[in-house]
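Task: encode each sequence below as structure tokens.

Item 1
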Amino acid sequence: MLGSAISILVTGAMISAVYALIAIGFTMIFGVGGVLNLAHGALIMLGAYGYLVVTSSSTVEFLALPPVVGLVVAIAVGAIGSYGLYRGLVEYIEDNPVITFLATLVVALILAELAVVGFSASPRSLVNLAPGSYHHEGFGIRVTYIELVAFVASWVSIGLLWYYVTRTDEGRSILATSMSERGAQLTGVDLPSVKARTWVIAGGLAGLAGVFIGTLQQTSPVMWLDPLALAFIIVVIGGIGSIKGSIIAAYLIGYLETLTVELLGSGFRGTFSLIVLVIVLLVMPQGLFGREWVHE
């Protein structure tokens, strides 16, 4: 009994850390620009394929860089892809939420098709950044090292992001814009620059998450669908635009799924997450930590 409880605690913490990485970028973009970026999942896929290209000789024969370098490349690919999406498309249409919503979905579908053309529809395995696992026989716990690395990377990223948005002028301008765009403008904040930085940060986090999802599950042209749905559920429950809410909701969903799998089986993994989503929408439509939006 104690072993099962500890196993659930550990497994839930590992899964939830990856979920937090997936959701934070999604909520930041909505919080700052009011954009529901449906290409966020595709940016996760882009990061995974970026890692695959530079670390596996099966894709480009002369390229087989160390996994740590591949991790940096994945973050850069996600960040550059996200920046390009904002500067090349979203910046011109973001005043129309519906058009922006549909445009980002189209971009995601195009990227998925390009992935099929470039890498085929077959799932690919990524070079494991940290192979091996830890097994505690007494408690019956088995944790892979890649899960531990994902957990640490997630919290380091969250810590750096938290420091950036609360301790630096550039970061505080992102926070101010997410609370009131007009108020930020009146204090001299450069809105286009703030939005571009937000997209870069969100893309970098998506690229990082892509490596861990691609390693723990699989890398394929459809791998972006589940993370996108997951990000949407987490952000709605946590409160759209709230980083703190997204982190807490990620852990809520992570532990809920772990408990469900442990008690009912993997077939029910996402069932209770959807039930919680419906309850939150009915009872607290602003989410657990939704911002009190300022009318402009």
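Item 2
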Amino acid sequence: MESLKKYLGVVWILIGIYVGYDRVTDSLIKIGSDKLEDRVFGWVVLCVLVPIIVGGLILFGKYALDGEYKSDE
């Protein structure tokens, strides 16, 4: 079970990197749009949501790799 948790830690980190790349590129496309609502949404996603989501996924994966979720049973 502990090795599965460490494996899933790597998976969480990889998902965080992919989501960060995907959201940043999509936000930059929206920021360059002619519509005001797309530009505002792009800035909100880029400045607020991406750091929270990507940081959370990578930190969760790091803790899983470090063994922070070991059970003491």
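Check on item 2: The helical segments are 2-31, 36-66. The chain has a mean pLDDT of 92.
End of task.
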